[in-house]
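Q: Give me the 3D complex with magnesium ion.
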Amino acid sequence: MDVSIVIPLFNEDESLTELSAWIERVVNAHQLSYEIIMIDDGSTDNSWEVIEKLRANNPNIKGIKFQRNYGKSAALNEGFKAAQGQVIITMDADMQDSPDEIPELRKMILEGNYDIVSGWKKKRYDNALTKNLPSKLFNAAARKMSGIQLNDFNCGLKAYKYKVVKSIEVYGEMHRYVPVLAKWAGFRKVGEKVVEHRARKYGVTKFGWDRFINGFLDLMSIFFVGKFGKRPMHFFGLWGTVSFMFGLMVFIYLTISKFFFDVTGMTQRPLFFFAILAMIIGTQLFLSGFIGELIARNSPERNHYLIEQKLGL
Ligand code: UDP
Ligand code: MG
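A: Here is the predicted complex, encoded as structure tokens.
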């Protein structure tokens, strides 16, 4: 099979028919053998009924229906597991990504020998303040932390070699950083293609303000797991020691001033205690988060999703 198109979707019943017709047009024009895998991530609208109807008319359309909403990463993960094409292309369901890009993306993977080609929405049709600006900041941070020179990590439109999607696991909210996961797995040849971006035609965005905070925390996870995942002591050992030494010095200072100079009731003392407390709590919280992350990565349940129904898979 030439190409698998993996589409995660959550309440997108309005666009699915139009989207799949457009994809069919493009792949037929290029005589590509294909499958479209739609992963219904717990939609509460008619998305699944629409998928069933589409499948009845075109056996190349396949579906996975989650029992509940697990998130875009989970949907991609299951789509990747099922995909059989030589090239796998992921695409949002909201018609913001153009299916016209499919042949060129596929060509870049095959002829340019890229492991991944990521779309770059150079010109965006989203809200400038709530999306475009924060996304610029994120991309700059992600570039710096991952060492991957992509302008647009979060673009839903990406193409992968078969081997890449079979070697990585996407979970949590890591769909933003799939190229980083691939890099860890040893796939380094990452290309970028400027893609046409369109305004959302139907429905509304499924990610609210928490995208910023979750995106940031995931970036931190990516960074720490990548850098210190195999040697957490190098990070926590250092900062734990620094924090402990600071606390010890303040303690010695307090002891000396009390017993040798009889200084008591200094106003800054509560401040010192507060500082130490804050540092210790900070370190503890951070450490807990990091350990939690490492445990989660090893949990056999980390990518276990209840699938209510499958079509064609
Ligand atoms: N999506 C999903 N599960 C979710 C949230 C979103 O499968 O929990 C899908 C959504 O239906 C769409 C894609 O992920 O196909 C991108 O979502 P959206 O367009 O809302 O994100 P934005 O373009 O605003 O970043
Ligand atoms: Mg969108």
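A quick observation: The chain has two domains: 3-228, 232-298.
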